[in-house]
Structure formats: structure tokens, C-alpha cells
Amino acid sequence: MKNQRKKIGNNKSPTPESKFRSDFSICSKEKDLAGAISLFDSAVSQNLKLNLHHLNCFLYICSNSIEDNKDVAIDKGFSIFNHMISSKINPNEATITAVSRLAAAKDDADLSFELVKSLLKYNDKPRLRTYDPALFCYVKKSDAEKAYLVEKDILSMGLCLEEPEIAALLKVSAETGNEEKVYEYLHKLRIGVKCVNESTAEIITNWFKGETGAKVASRLKDCDMGRVKDMVLKNGGGWHGLGWITKGKWVLQRTTIDSNGVCCACKDQLACVDIGREETEKFAQSLMALAIERETRSNFTQFQNWLDEHNDFEAIVDGANIGLYQQNFAEGGFSVSQVEIVVKELYNRSKKWPLVILHDKRIRALLANPSNRELLEEWIERGVLYGTPVGSNDDWYWLYASVKLKCMLVTNDEMRDHIFELLGGNFFPRWKERHQVHYTFPKGKLQLQMPPPYSILIQESERGTWHVPLVSDHNDESLRTWLCISHSDLCKTCSEETSSSHVGITGKRKERSSS
After folding, report:
1. Percent of the chain as helix, strand, coil, to the nearest 5
2. In 10 A of CB 448, how many CB atoms?
3. Of 114, 402, 470, 511, which is the most exposed, with the fewest CB atoms less than 10 Å away?
4. Residue 338 near residue 324 (C-beta atoms within 8 A)
5. d(Cα 19, Cα 16) in Å, to the nearest integer?
6. Got the DSSP string for 22-79?
7. Mind listing the pLDDT tens digit for each residue in 376-424?
8. Beta strand 466-469 with 459-460: parallel, antiparallel or unpaired?
9. How many CB atoms sit inside 10 A of residue 372's CB?
10. What angle do CA 482, 484, 485 make, to 5 degrees?
11. Which 3 state secondary structure label does DSSP give 317?
């Protein structure tokens, strides 16, 4: 009898709520539009309570079904959104992103943008993806001014544009013939995107090949070319930012860059781009502020004063990193000989001693060993060894010195620790690329890996040529495709120079290779 009752109990029909939960789980996994619509309508007809998660899932399915069932997806999506608002459920960023996509799908860019701006009244913030539908819809309509307004709102929220957004703004600027904006977005690509995708390269190509691109003229006089060179130096190389400086028809070539950083098409030497003077100073100031905050103030101030008086170094050596390199074996310890090899190699290259930074405690321990004493005393006498105080973090010292003195830093430390994250800014990776020297000791022989001879990013030369690197699957940089964009008169001059002085150019290249 008990078993019979239990069997009857097990055959009991599921409640509408439990059936909805089961069907919703299947629907959210399969992302089927027809199933989602049916489930939503059924829940509403049964007066089931739908929460934000349920409704966002339905909206997501609608926004992802635009290509296959555009009209149905749009109509039902807005119906679901209206149900949410009438039910007094506050939308969040995911909600608005989905509905903004639906608005853009019916070419209502204004509504899409208004939806994004409405998020603030619901105490939520948009993400970059939230703005994309409105931005891309304005670009599709060639409404450049409103596209610029979307960009302004993105930046006001503290968000950063990525390649798709910059490429879209570049495209609408090119199509509407706004040469100043084209120039601006080329530089935003240079700053924010290392190598461009094929679709972005096509936008750039269409601009320079088009009629408007061919008509852009320099607003600088011949006497201003000295200013161009000064700006290139001030900015760290690779760009000047003063606007178009040549005029006439552009010549576009797909080419490669040789191992010395010379363009195989126009023969321009690409730059190893550093951070600019202002960024360098800000970087040094932020390092100083963080170091003083975390170190004993008097200790770091003393180092700053010492560095002001000993400011002729061209290289800083992270002594601990080199001395402990590959010493994790039974008899391993601090290898003074490895540090000595690095110091001698740097001296032989430049005839200037590098600055070695080590913990003071480590120096005292090494001096206690007679086999090390003479070498360390020589370094101390020459003023090329600085001991950081007990309890200090020597990272602050060697990094600050290399930034302040604008010199090379020999270390394998990739500087990924949290203290380096505090520095922020996209200039830190660029600074590392230009200043960090890696090293290895294969079979006990030192190999220094110097910074690359050129930077793989968009470059604007003082002659007005542009070089744009494309995304590549190759590990060999010599196989990377670049867009070389120059003027016909520059190409002609280069061709004449090549044919008339072929030997001289070849000699220069050989000289680069041997250096």
C-alpha cells in the first residue's frame, strides 16, 4: 500500500514553475529563437514571475537571431524589453547591449544610442560592446558627426577604442572626405593597435588610393621641416603628428622590412620607437612617487641625489637577476662571474661602465669572500656599484635609474609583478621594448638580446611616408607584410638614388649588419 502511494506520488504532474525552469535550461543552451518565443509567451500567459536573468537570456537569443529571422527577432525582442520595463525590472548592461543591437538592426541608430545613454539612470555603466551597434550603424549610414558623438561618449566613460571601432571611424571619415579626421584616426590606430587586420588595411588603402586622399596637401612650409624633425625626436621616433606634410598622388606597395629595419620598397629606415620626452618624465615621476610611498623616503631620496651626480651611465644592470640566473642547483649560489661578464661586455661595446644595482646585504656578503673582494672594491671605487638599503625592493632602484637616465636595462625580469601594474599606461610595454636587454649564457658564453632595430607598429616618417604592419601568422618578422605608403616623387627619388649609387647603399647596409 505504501509503495502504491509512493508510485502515485511520483507520477504527479510538474508545476508550471518547475516545467518552466526545465524548459528554460534547455532553451538557454540551444539558443533557439522559436523555442525562446514560445517559452516566453507561455510564461506570460501563465502569469509566471520572470526575473532579469530570464529576460536577458530571451533578449540575447533574439539579438543573436537577427541574420536568420530579422523581423521576428526585432519585434519579439522589443516586446520582451517592454515587458521588462512594465514589470518594473531595471535593465542592466547586458539588457541594453542586446536591445541596442535590435535597434541597430532596424537601422535606428538614434534609438540604439539613446538606449546606451539610458543605462546611467539604471545605475549601470556601458561597456565598449554596448556602444558598438550605434557606432557601426552611424558608420553604415555615413553619418560621421553622430559617429564622432558616440566616440566622445565612449571616451567620457573612461573606455578605450579598439581596432574595430577605430577602423569604423576611419572608414566614415574617409568616405566623407574629412582628411583631418583620417589623420587623427591613423594615429589612434598607431597608438592602440600594434598590427592591423586585413579589413583595416583595406580601409587605409581605399583612402590613400581615393581622389580625396590624393588631394591632401601639406600645411607646413619648407622652413617648418626642422620642426617636423624636432617633433619626431620629442615623440620618441616613428611619428611627428603635425599633419600631412606632402602632396600629390600616393603610391601604395605591399612589402617587407629587412632585418635592419629598412623598407624593401621605399628604402626608408624604420624607427625603434621610444616613449616621448613628456611620457618619459611622467613615467619617472610616477615611479618616484610609488617608490617613495613603498620605500623608506630618505633611502630613495638619497639614491635620487646620488643619481643626479652620477648620471653618465648608458646601461643599468639588475645584479640580482643576473647573479642568480640558472643557479637553482645543489651547489648553486650567487654568481659574481656572470655579473662580471655582463659588465665587461657592456663596457667593451660602449667604453662606458654600466651601473650595477645590488642589495647592500648581498654586497657585504660578497665582500666577505676574498675571491670576490678585489672585483667589488674596484666597482665601488669606480662608482659603478650601488647597494640598496636593507629591507628595500631593488626593483624600484634599477627601474627608476634606467627611466631617469634614458638608458638600457639588462634584466630578464619581465616586470609583471603587481608593483609594475600600478604604473598603468600603455607606454610601459613600449618603454620595455625599446630599453630592456635580455641575456642568456649558452654553454657559459654570454649572449645579449638587444632591443629590435625597429618597432612593429604604424610609423609616420618625417618625409611624410607611412608604414603599416599587418597581422601575421609567421614567427619570422622578415615575412610580415607591411603597407608602404609614399608619394610618387619620393619613390622616383629613391629609385634614382638606388640606380645611381647602388654600391653606396649596399655598403651602408653591410655596415648596419656588422654593428
Report:
1. 60, 10, 30
2. 15
3. 511
4. no
5. 5
6. HHHHHHHHHT-HHHHHHHHHHHHHTTPPP-HHHHHHHHHHHHTTTTTSHHHHHHHHHH
7. 999 999 999 999 998 888 899 999 999 999 999 999 998 876 566 666 6
8. antiparallel
9. 17
10. 140
11. strand
- Long-range contact set of residues 76-80: C-beta below 8 Å, sequence gap at least 24: 76/33, 76/37, 76/40, 77/102, 78/102, 80/40, 80/55
Q: Tell me which of 1-15, 348-362, 401-415 is least confident.
A: 1-15
Q: How far is CA 134 from CA 96, 178, 185, 383, in A?
A: 12, 21, 19, 61
Q: Which three cell numbers stand for residue 190?
A: 598607431
Here the cell at position 279 is 611620457
Q: What is the DSSP string of 422-452?
A: TT-STHHHHHHHHHEEEEE-GGG--EEEPPP
User: Using CA atoms, how far apart are residues 305 and 511, in angstroms rounded to an integer?
Assistant: 40
- Three-state secondary structure readout of 227-282: HHHHHHHHCCCCCCCCCCCCCCCEEEEEECECCCCEECCCCCECCCCCCCHHHHHH
Q: Which amino acid is at 81?
A: F
| Residues whose CB falls within 8 Å of the CB of residue 229, separated by 6 or more in sequence, listed in order | 462
Q: Which of 108, 131, 276 is nearest to 191 (CA)?
A: 276
The lowest-confidence range among 182-196, 266-280, 329-343, 499-513 is 499-513
Q: Is the pTM of this model over 0.85?
A: no
Q: Which of the listed ranges 19-28, 74-83, 299-308 does the model predict with the highest average pLDDT?
A: 74-83
SS3 116: helix
Amino acid at 263: C
